[in-house]
Amino acid sequence: MFHRSCLFAVIVGLLLCVVARAQTPPSPSGGFNGLNMNLGNLPRLSNAQSRSISPENFTGEKGRGAMATEGTGKGAARELGQGWKVSPSVVIKGKSTFTLAEIDGSGAIQQIWMTPAPLAKTRLYILRFYWDDEEEPSVEVPLGDFFACGWGKFCQVTSLPVCVNPGSAFNCYWNMPFRKKAKITLENLDDKHMRIFYQINYTLTEVPEDAAYFHAQFRRVHKLKPKTEYTILDGVSGRGQYVGTYMAWESRSPGWWGEGEIKFYLDGDKKFPTICGTGTEDYFCGSYGFHNRKTRLYQTFNTPYVGMPQVLPPDVVGVVGQRFGLYRWHVLDPVRFEKDLKVTMQALGWQSGGRYLPLQDDIASVAYWYQTEPHAKFPTLPTKDELLIKPLKLEKPDAK
After folding, report:
1. What is the CATH number of the domain that holds 206?
2. Is residue 347 part of a domain?
3. What's the total number of domains in the chain?
4. What is the average per-residue pLDDT within 271-294?
5. How many CB atoms lie within 10 A of CB 39?
6. Are 281 and 266 in contact, with CB atoms under 8 Å apart?
7. From the CA atom positions of the chain, what is the Rg in Å?
8. Whose CA is closest to 95, among 186, 185, 189?
């Protein structure tokens, strides 16, 4: 059942989004450029050109959709022929890379829909986005994690920039501008073939001079070293704003795991950060361990800007091997930087005598931000074996 509190949160979030977004400035040549859409500017006419890339139109060219005579749906359409869903998906062979989209010109990607199979192996399907003529990707993230669904199992995500819908529909609405070119690839690290259905909706238009480029980076540590902080993002060089965090967190110690602080080191900060949170559950806008006070179980939640949509079994507070998926979108509160940025998160629990306990949990994350180009080269993506999800054998909670 969709609770009234959830409905209220969604309505309030949408209203805040509309009120908070200033009217989109005109394009350099005058008129509305068709970017940064919201309910307030939907009536405005624009010279922007709507385009879409999918297996039914790999190039996005005008008047070139539904022309396929070969494709994964050819057998089902054998009595209907061309124009009847002949090419709804593509098969990507094991250990190969497929170019999902390549766009020439100036504009922005406005919405992406994807559904991969098999879902359980999404950590092995690597999305990469390239802007203009860059050789190093600005986005390099496993497919599931990019859409805040990193455990290889379905969970519904209901937020403004990202939503995951039944049965395995990954969607995002991040605004992704480009000035010369955009390229999106998907690498299949698995030995076996995979299938992907997808659609990438974009507009060709003029991009404002002050529009930065979208970036996303994945990191994973199987076991934190004692008394160390988890690094969400480091090595960023340029000007921009941090806009979101997704974390796939596995608790590997009994008891509570979310006392750690998030820290944002801005523009030359060394030992101490400019921004320091008060706890993991606080950063993800929850409190008191994310658990329901009546049932004493973890309580999932989805809101426009923050949520914990996934809690994997057993749904008991404080059990070793419990796994969580959490997102925090800085849509109305981006963290701006002028020269450089580093983001870390502590993993802290409790031990005897009311003392904090540094944890050695298994943590993966995606950092989302916008910045000027060129960007610093990303760290090497974890190997296939390091990417694989290997949860601990679950232990029963203490009978006490």
Report:
1. 2.60.120.1390
2. yes
3. 1
4. 96
5. 11
6. no
7. 22
8. 189
